[in-house]
Every structure is written in C-alpha cells, then in structure tokens.
Amino acid sequence: ITSRPWWKDAVCYQIYPASFKDSNGDGLGDIPGIVSKIDYLKNLGVDVIWVSPMYESPQVDMGYDISNYEKVYPPYGTVKDMEDLIEACHKRGMKLILDLVVNHTSDQHPWFKESRSSKDNPKRDWYVWKPPRYAEDGTRLPPTNWRSYFSGPTWEWDEHTGEYYLHLFAKEMPDLNWENPETRRAIYDSAMKFWLDKGVDGFRVDTVNMYSKRPEYADAPVVDPLFYEQPAYSHWANGPRIHEFLREMNREVLDHYGQPMTVGELPHTPDPKQVLEYVCASDRQLSMVFQFDIVNVGEGREHKFVFREWKLPELKGVVEKWQRFVEGTDGWTTVFCENHDQPRSVSRYCSDLPAARTCSAKLLALMLCSLTGTLFLYQGQEIGMINIPSSWNIDEYRDIESVNFYKAMAAKADNDAAQLERLHDCLQKLARDNARLPMQWDGSAHAGFTDSEKGPWMRVHDLYQEINVEKQIREGEGSVLGFWKRMIQLRKKHADVLAHGTFEGFEMEDERTFVFGKRTEDARVAVVLNFTGEEQEVRLPEYEGLRFEVGSYEDAKEEEERAEGRLRRLRPWEGRLYMAG
Ligand code: TEU
C-alpha cells in the first residue's frame, strides 16, 4: 500500500487578506478577521487555508513587494496574530500555508537598501545589477530590451551607483540574485524557516520558475514595434539552474520539517514534460504547481489583457491535457480556475447575466469537484462572485498592472475615445481587480466586510445584496454556497474516483457541452455540462450501471426519473453527475 501525502486530497481555500474580513473598522481586511471566519471555512469543507502575503510591505503590489519577511503589515496585525491563526487552524484539524515570494523583495527591504548603497557593499551582489549600454549617438540604454510584467522596462537606472537593476515586476520590486549562495541562505532563513518554525504547513510559491535567469542577458525579438520593451519570458522562465535551486531548497529547508506542502506558480510553461520536472515525486522539488493554461483562456498572446475570443473546445482541451498529465507519471496536478490575479470564473467561462449566474457557478463547482488533483478555491468563488460591473469608471481599478497597462496603451492610442473604451472593456473582462473586491458577507452596509465609516479600501460590488454569504446560508442547498458544500462532501466521500480517477473526455470538439468520465478499477463517474444559455442535448458515456447522483438544478432528480436511454436534455448552464460501482 502506498500512502498518499496529505495534500493530495486536500480542499484548499485562498484568502486575500486585504479583501476578506475587516475586524477593526479601518476598511482593510486583517488577520483577526480571518480567524473570525475559520468556522465558516471549516463548515464549507476546507482543509487548507492559503493566505496571500500578509508581510510588512509598502503595498506597491498588494503585499507581493515585501520589505521584511519576519514582520506582518501592521494594518493586517502582528506576528502574534499569525501565531493565533496557525493555532486556530490546527485546533480544527486544518492546515495553513503562506505565500513565499522570493523572486524579488521590495526596494524598501534592508537587503536592497544595502545593495544599492555602493558598488562594494557586501550585499551588492544580492540583486541583479548591470552596467548600461550606449546607442551609437551616445544615448544610455538599459542592458536589454525586456518588458516588465507591469509595463515599461525590466531595468531601473540607479543614478547613485551608475548601474541598472533588474525588476521583472514593478520598479519597486528588485529581483534577488539567486546565483549567490549567501542570498539563497538568507532567503531560506528569513522567508521560510522563520515561519516553518512557527508551525505553518507549507507554501504557495510565487513565480517559482523565475529565479534562474538565462546568463546571456540577450535582447528579445521585437514583436511590438511601437514600444522599445518586448516580451522576454524565455530569458527568465525555467532558466538553467532552477531545478538545482529547488532541490537545494528541499535539502536545506523543507526536508527538515516533515512533509510541508508546496504549490508553485508556473507561468509560461505549456509543455507537460517541462512541468513534470518540477513535480515528479521522485525528484522532490514541488508537491504540485499551478500551470497557467486554464487562466490563459481569453488572454491576448502579446499582452494578456487584450481580450481574445475563445471557444469551449479550448477550455475542454486544457482540462483534458492536465487531467491526463498524471497518468503513468509520479507527478501531481492542481484543479483551480480563480485566484487573486484572475477575473471571476462565472463571468469568464460562463455568464454572469441575472438569470444565468447561479447556474453558472454551480456548473463550474460540479466540474471542478469532479477533477483529479488538489482542489483550490479562491475567496468568494464559493458564493459565485462576479466581475466588476461595466458601469464602473476606470479610476475604480486599483491594481498596478491594470493602471500601468491602461496608461501605456492609452498613450500609444493617442487617447482615442473608441480605443479607450476598448481598453476599459478588456480590463472589465480580465483585470486582476475583478478578484480583489471585498468579500460579500451579508446585505448590510459595505457587504458586512467592514464597519468603517469611510468604507472599504476598494469599492464593494453593486450586487452584494443579491450575492452574499448570509443570504446563501439562509437559502441552504439550493444556493451556490450550499451546492459547493455538497459537492465538496461528495468529492471527499468518493475521493478515489473524483480526486484521483482517470479522466476520459467525449466529443471534445463540441462547442456547447462538456461530457467527461472519471474511472478507477471499480468505480465510474460521468459528468455532463451545458456551457450555453440554451437547452442542449448530451449523450451519457457508455458506462455500465450509471445512476444519477447530483445535479445543479434542484429538480434534476425528477427529470431523471422521466429520462430513458443515454440522451439527456440539459437546461441552460445545467450540469449533472452520475455514478456507477
Ligand atoms: O504572479 C506572477 C505572474 O506571473 C502573473 O500571474 C501575474 O498575475 C502578473 O499579472 C503577470 O502579468 C505573482 C502573484 O500572484 C502576483 O499577484 C504578483 O503581482 C506577482 O507574482 C509578483 O509577485
């Protein structure tokens, strides 16, 4: 008998501290607010809580710019509050993982302040410094033409020492130099051991494939001639030493703490062979990763925010690709479609129109709870929260990535009104802001998120009186929340087939419906999903002895009693699940 690591069957729930629950009326979520909602999460069936960065930070990128790994951002609370949170989780048999952000720090981190102080400072080499280049006419140029994630160059000129430093994200987020063993040791001690010693159960590892940069520092090909800076991911994603670094991280740190769970964020890595290098159990690098195919659906190829039309077979294809990934390998996978960097799944993959949004949220719950891998939910997904209304002005968007994108593209378009409207529409569909609205707890002022008089740090969704936790608890099983709870229970009861079984897709080219099976030696599951707002006919897979188990429409059971043979008519955004064995 092979024992399964605990994290394979876990249901994980991501909390974005700023927007989860404010306990002290300052308009910003906080750690005591999280503690106050643990029983709500326990009741939903959550096993692991992942908290996005709560560390000391100037908040240029909502805490992903860390100025001290061993302190907590004061508006969120204290290290003592974190210890209480860890204890509150453990008391209930739940686990807690933190966000490990060690590709870069804040420019306010003492390490960087020292590094930039002089060329011969002992920490100079802890970050990536390069001399300038010069054009023929003598103009100073950055070392490469790379474009950063938040628009503009990846290089910032430092007048004081006459060199550029590298920043893949904001200029206030300099990249650490992983080539230096002393830097790596400091990262392990400060960002990892400090919290593992306090009892955290693992990490979500931010941008895990970017630590090792290609040593050539060569220019990227010009694909966007209107800008100097060009997309250059291949120069820093999955670089030559990355696997060596991750093995070392296990050897030096993780191995000494039992079996902490690690889930790495893995953008720009479509090739399953390459992904397997990170997650094959025998090599002990990461427990699992968030591969990005599912969240790249609808994103532009040259710039992610330039919305690209897509059809259902693309989504089905990426689901199938990562379901089949685990077959015949010792690798593991994750099941997710939301996080703090993504729009809301109801709006993105289905429809958030009034008549469709509840069905859509349940359809997605049915799909996700039936897939193999560790399941991750993002706060608000369990009640079917939706994207920012189109009526909101562009100045309601707060995220540095949205703001910079809009500025750069608007300038490029000469502020042409039609273009500006198009940019607004792209952000309404794809901006990270969509995930960052305050959690909708009830129908009272500010959705019960805060009792601050000046209101929350980011505007509450207009529809909070319709979509909120309290209302859905009252409505019970028929609500999105009730359905998620029921599906999580079903997933746990039949974990062998639902969380571990072999995936089989049917009619994968069909643009309206998604039919798939899950199998083990002795069980069969069939899932049929209607991804349109009209009735659709589907055919159940030819599995012996299938019986109806659960449906996203409350009267599905009665409908099933009238059904004959393998054909079923599904109503708009309806999903059903059948089992045999
Ligand atoms: O994101 C890294 C990343 O590659 C993207 O998914 C990110 O959303 C960015 O928008 C790229 O366009 C991680 C965090 O999840 C994100 O919130 C941080 O901003 C980023 O790292 C920097 O720490």
TrEMBL record:
Domain Glycosyl hydrolase family 13 catalytic: 14-436
Top-rank lineage group of the source organism: Eukaryota
Coiled coil: 403-430
SUPFAM superfamilies hit by this protein: (Trans)glycosidases, Glycosyl hydrolase domain
Keyword tags: Coiled coil, Maltose metabolism
Pfam family, one: Alpha-amylase
InterPro entries assigned to the protein according to its UniProt record, in alphabetical order: GH, GH13_cat_dom, Glyco_hydro_b, O16G_dom_2
Gene3D superfamilies, A to Z: Glycosidases, Golgi alpha-mannosidase II, Oligo-1,6-glucosidase, Domain 2
Listed PANTHER family: ALPHA-AMYLASE FAMILY MEMBER, MALTASE MALT (AFU_ORTHOLOGUE AFUA_8G07070)
Recorded family membership: Belongs to the glycosyl hydrolase 13 family.
Designated name of the protein: Glycosyl hydrolase family 13 catalytic domain-containing protein
